[in-house]
Specification:
Layout: H1 3-8, E1 35-39, H2 48-61, E2 66-71, H3 76-80, H4 92-97, E3 108-109, E4 115-118, H5 127-130, H6 140-146, E5 154-159, H7 165-173, E6 176-182, H8 185-189, H9 191-204, E7 210-219, H10 224-237, E8 241-247, H11 251-257, H12 262-265, H13 270-284
Parallel strand pairs: 1-5, 1-6, 2-4, 2-5, 6-7, 7-8
Antiparallel strand pairs: 3-4
Helix pairs in contact: 2-13, 6-7
Length: about 290
């Protein structure tokens, strides 16, 4: 992957790759061990939480048992699935700080079939400072998730917009990475630093880590700018770019306010179909069972 190419490519015909369909996945006979996927981008507002919730819900609808990990002190993933961060007595923060705490005491069931959540709140913001002096501090989340991995098919980690210690923990625990990328030029520039961080994690901490794909989000087919950015991303990253594109729509914030995935809030909306298609594509690529 050569991110610099994405910045240097001269303007060319702005096209979005033609999309093929993907077969509906077969149901699973057994569940686990989970494949762990980190949803990462150090830039905020690119659709990480929206994609975590809706991809998770779409995989769950195809019979995959899902654990969604809120790894952002803002707790947006928790709120988006109906969990009030302010009511939590214990959260993922406590699991990081106390190795004797059982994750089952923290995991919360949701109103949605096949979806559990490991919630977070503002307490998590203290973890980066408190973990600095810990032995093998990059592997603490990995040890937490290993205790429940056999119970799920996919564990999806929604990371904070940072490349700090929490994100490093997520990348060290993960088998794969999905990079949501807003189709906007300045969002594209930040991918270079993220790819460099992923390569360092692969080299030093997690050799089996792979990039499952780059997910174009907030795409607006009405603007030439979105089309040009999409064209540059596709030329630079080739088959690492998911064919599925997530279009900009007000239905996503509406679903967030309702604390539902868009797949249940507006099941016939194009945004719902886009995330179901992404789930099928991820399974077809081998990124999920």
């Amino acid at each position: 992957m050569n991110t610099q190419q994405a910045l240097d490519i001269p303007k060319s015909k702005s096209t979005v790759p033609e999309q093929q369909d993907f077969d509906e996945p077969a149901p699973l006979d057994t569940h686990g061990p989970a494949r762990i996927i980190a949803m990462v981008n150090q830039k905020g507002g690119v659709g990480k939480t929206t994609s975590s919730i809706n991809l998770g819900a779409s995989l769950a609808a195809y019979g995959r048992k899902m654990l969604l990990v809120d790894f952002d002190p803002q707790g947006a993933l928790s709120v988006g699935l109906g969990v009030n961060p302010y009511d939590l007595e214990i959260s993922v923060y406590n699991l990081l700080m106390n190795s004797r705490l059982d994750p089952h005491e923290v995991i919360v069931g949701t109103d949605f079939d096949n979806i559990d959540i490991l919630p977070a709140n503002i307490d998590l913001s203290a973890a980066e400072v408190q973990l600095v002096g810990e032995v093998a501090r990059e592997q603490i989340l990995s040890r937490v998730l290993s205790k429940v991995a056999d119970e799920y098919d996919v564990i999806l980690i929604d990371c904070q917009p940072s490349l700090g210690l929490l994100t490093v923990n997520a990348l060290t625990a993960a088998h794969g990475v999905i990079i949501p990328l807003e189709t906007e030029f300045f969002a594209l520039r930040g991918v270079a630093l993220l790819v460099e961080t992923i390569e360092k994690i692969q080299d030093r901490l997690n050799p089996s880590l792979v990039v499952d794909g780059i997910l174009a989000t907030m795409f607006d087919s009405r603007t030439l700018h979105s089309k040009e950015v999409m064209s540059r991303v596709t030329e630079a990253f080739d088959d690492k770019v998911f064919e599925t594109v997530i279009n900009r729509t007000v239905k996503f914030p509406d679903a967030s306010v309702a604390a539902e995935p868009i797949t249940s809030f507006a099941p016939k909306h194009a945004g719902s179909e886009a995330y179901r298609r992404l789930a099928r594509e991820l399974i077809a690529r081998g990124g999920a069972p």
